[in-house]
Amino acid sequence: MYPFAATGNTKESLYKEVNLPAEFESVLINKLAALDHRYLKDLKINVGNVLKSQTLNRKEALLLALSVAVNEKNAVLIAALEELASQEGADEKEIAEITACVSLMNANNVFYRFRHFMHKEFYDNAPAGIKMSIMANPVLGKEFFELTSLVVSALNGCEMCVTSHEQSVLNHGGTQARIFDAVRLGAIFKSFSVLI
C-alpha cells in the first residue's frame, strides 16, 4: 500500500510541475503508477531538473518545453505550458512565435533532410522557395529563436538543420552549455509527451 501512495504522490508532483490538472488521466502514466514503476520517479526528477537549468531562465525553459509540446501536437501539454510561460512573463506574441517557429522548422526539417539524403546537385542548388521572414527579427531575439529552432530540429532528426542552428546560436552569443541544456530539455519533454 505504501509504495503505491508514494508513486501516487510522484504522479501528483509531476503533474503539478508542468501545470497539468490533478484529475488529468493518462493511461500510460496510470499503468506506471499502478505498478509502482521507478521510471515515474525518474521522469519527475528529469522534468524538474531541466526546468531548473543553470543556463536557461524559467521563462526560456518553459517556452522550449512548449516548443516540444507543439511539435508533438500534445494539446493538453500545450495549454498547461502556455499558462506557465504566461505566468513567467511570456506574452502572446512570444508564445505565438514559438508556435510559428515550430511550424517553420517542420517545413525546413523535411526539406533540408531530403536535400541531405539525396546529395544531388539539382536539389542542392535549387532555391528552397520557403518564406522565412520570422527568422529575420524574432520577438524573442535571434539567439533564442535559433536555440528553439535547434531543439525542434534535433527532435525531428534533421542533421543539416541541427548543425546550422547550433552554429547560429554560438554566433549570436549562446554557449555550448546552453545548447546542451536546451537539447536535453527537448529530449526530456519529448519523453514525457509520449506518455500523455
Automatic annotation (TrEMBL):
Recorded catalytic activity of this chain's protein: N(6)-[(R)-dihydrolipoyl]-L-lysyl-[lipoyl-carrier protein] + a hydroperoxide = N(6)-[(R)-lipoyl]-L-lysyl-[lipoyl-carrier protein] + an alcohol + H2O
EC number, UniProt record: 1.11.1.28
Active-site feature positions: C158 (proton donor), C161 (cysteine sulfenic acid (-soh) intermediate)
Record keywords, A-Z: Antioxidant, Disulfide bond, Oxidoreductase, Peroxidase, Redox-active center
Broad class of enzyme this protein falls into: oxidoreductase
Top-level division of the source organism's lineage: Bacteria
SUPFAM superfamilies associated with the record: AhpD-like (SSF69118)
One Pfam family it belongs to: CMD
Disulfide bridge map: C158-C161
The Carboxymuconolactone decarboxylase-like domain, residue ranges: 126-189
Family, per entry: Belongs to the AhpD family.
PANTHER family (UniProt xref): ALKYL HYDROPEROXIDE REDUCTASE AHPD
Cited function: Antioxidant protein with alkyl hydroperoxidase activity. Required for the reduction of the AhpC active site cysteine residues and for the regeneration of the AhpC enzyme activity.
Protein name as annotated: Alkyl hydroperoxide reductase AhpD
Organism, scientific name: Dyadobacter endophyticus
